[in-house]
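Because showing beats explaining, we think one record worth quoting, sequence and backbone structure tokens together, and here it is:
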Amino acid sequence: MVVDQLNAGRVILTSEPERLELAELNLSAGKRAKAAAVFARALRYFKTGLDLLEENCWEAHYDLALALHTQTAEGAFLCSDTNEMEKVIRIVLQHARSPLDQAPVYEVKILALTAQNRWAEASQAALEILKNLGLNLPTAPGKLQIRLSRLKTKILLTGKSFDHLAHLPPMTDPSKTAIMRIIMRVNAALAIIYPELYPVLAGEQLRLTVRHGNGPASATAYLNYGMLLGSEGDMESGYQFGQLALRFLEQPQAEVSRIPTRFAFNLIMRHWKEHLRETLAPFLELHQAAREIGDLFYITYSSAFYCVHMFLSGWELPEIEKTMAEHDPVAKATGVQAGYYFMRLYRQVVANLLNSAADPCRLAGNFYDEEKMLTIDTEADNKGRDFGLYNCKLLLCLLFRQPARAVKNADRVQEVLEGPTALGSGAPAFYCWSSLARLACYPDVGPEEKGQILKRVEDAQTRLRRWARQSPLNYRHKYDLVNAVRHWVLGQDS
């Protein structure tokens, strides 16, 4: 390329205008390389552009300095060069003139922290920049605050059809656009770390869209509001908002939110209406799309949930193990530890089921060590990972006829079953498995505890009944199985 030839001779450039012109050429070349997913080359161009700037670049050529530093931070993240990324982000935060100019590197910071399993820090970074941009969110909103947020949103939506929302004018306020992008980046982390905030966040997102127009990240707003409705029992309306989010993705401006929205819909909502196996092909498509743009987070999580949904939808264990072995090196190479560990958790479950072990209910082997990983999870405050671990242990204890241990794990799952976690495909499975474990203990306990067990089972069945009505293909058999076992332990024929 011409830029490469010019870079080779840059040492002879002495005038500032010539160096600035070449810096701009490197910025353009870097953007083209990044768009083509040639990230190492892109980073090299961006860093060369930085080298061409003078020490007073932030005062004399602010826009160029900001653009090159921002692109370098993103390029370093895509190349897993954490030290370079953090150094450049610090420089931008020191010199940027406004929160709006800081917002893009905050996006990079949030993505990096999330990938490193530092979800609490990612959430704190997001709350910090959101506050600076004008959106001050409470981490622990009270019930009144949540109800008020819901009421505001309902009033604003009155008289507005889905077609009306789909054709809102474009969002033109750059601060509001930045807020929406930050929320999109931190969506998963905030939902896990601050589940009480989720209803308020979903409302804020949707109100921003309705008031200021559809922006690049508005699909996330529609999807989050749909998930909120689903968590409140209105899965039908929630699913319609999910469909609206997918419809919005057809617009060119929605490119930045295309993969996150399709992923979340496939993970959280699709099984509300379609068979769980129908999520598998979309996860593979998302994996390929993420690889084409170098989105490390979704490369890893699309692989992880593809394998998990194979397991939950009843594929043969050897086939699941073969698939996991194929996806393992790619997921590991991304450096997205949380997603990689999550996939390895289920790989260890499969291994325990395929191979004899001294204690098949303990997840410690070639792929996963629960004691080590629990330490990491605690440090990350990652409730979603706790849900996955104890739900898997619950299933293993149930299958290997250790109901007392199964119940202990069920109690641990219950502690973290909140927010979006309660809407995914693992939640209805938990309600079924936990009830079966409690009923298996029923014959061996006293009258008082028998009553407690039946109460817990009835509560779980109330929730599972909702799932069974919404998606009988996936969950009616689970509801019926628990009912049959309950009648059996009570000595009832019908």
